User: What shape does this take?
Amino acid sequence: MRRRDFTTGLLLAGTVPTALAQEPAKQHRIAIVVPAGPVADISETGPAFWRAFFEELRRLGDVEGQNLTVERYSGEGRPEGFDDLAREVVKRNPDVTVALSNAIARAARAANGTMPMVWMGGDPIEAGFATSLARPGGNITGVTVEEGDEIWGKRLQILKEAVPSASKAAFLTMRTSSGRPEQLLREAGQRLQISVIDMPLQVLIAAEFQHVFGKIAQLRPDAVIVTSMGDLLPYRQLIIELVEKSRLPAMYPWREYVDEGGLMAYAVDLSELARHIADDVHEILNGTKPGDIPIYQPAKFQFLINLKAAKALGLTIPPSLLATADEVVE
Assistant: This one.
């Protein structure tokens, strides 16, 4: 069920005078654990998020194959296996574990409560990972994708402006969600006169996505909103295809969806978050305790519209909404 890929770092031997032998560069080992998707994507030539991560590590002097070994793991979209996967990671005793998603971080912490960890996920205080953003205080730091409560209302508002007749929206989420986005969307929906119905995925496999979109078709909503949980990102092309097949306008949480054909996104820059994660890894490798590194919370957002996707839907985006877009994809 699980896959693991190792890339072994090589010791560097400097060319020095024979009388003054230079010590080899200190070797570090990190584990990267993602909830879903192929481990092959976790590379300098992979998606933009991972390119930014490895480029930042290289800029800081942490280079895979030189002074850094990277071990890659995927939970393959099956939350019931995360605990076993976390124990497997812990046995390898990495210097730092990069955990993408609350569920992965929670499993890793249960397996070893002191292992240094850099995480990306939801509210770290609500999850029990930190006492505050400024000073986490435990063995975890990283990046929260919780952009603030108002973000979900903003996404629904933009969707309503794009489709003024919309009165029902399906929210594609996961059963492991904290429930906070769902609550915020329902509250915003009451103000905007849109009922929001949760459509949770039980596992992250293609058949489950198809099953849930079959239920969405029966629901006959006017639009779809996709959760910001990073677990779904490896499946973004499948999600976009299923949304297009349903011929529904959709609001996405990351620009990567729009770049690959999705209609709209109101989002932070994932590459920026990747660079912050790399910075945290570098600090920990050089002796800083995770609990002393502030957790980063994004503050800048971009609104993107894909006019090609709108045309395919036969949807005319109001000029007033186009004027507010930070980027329009023709």
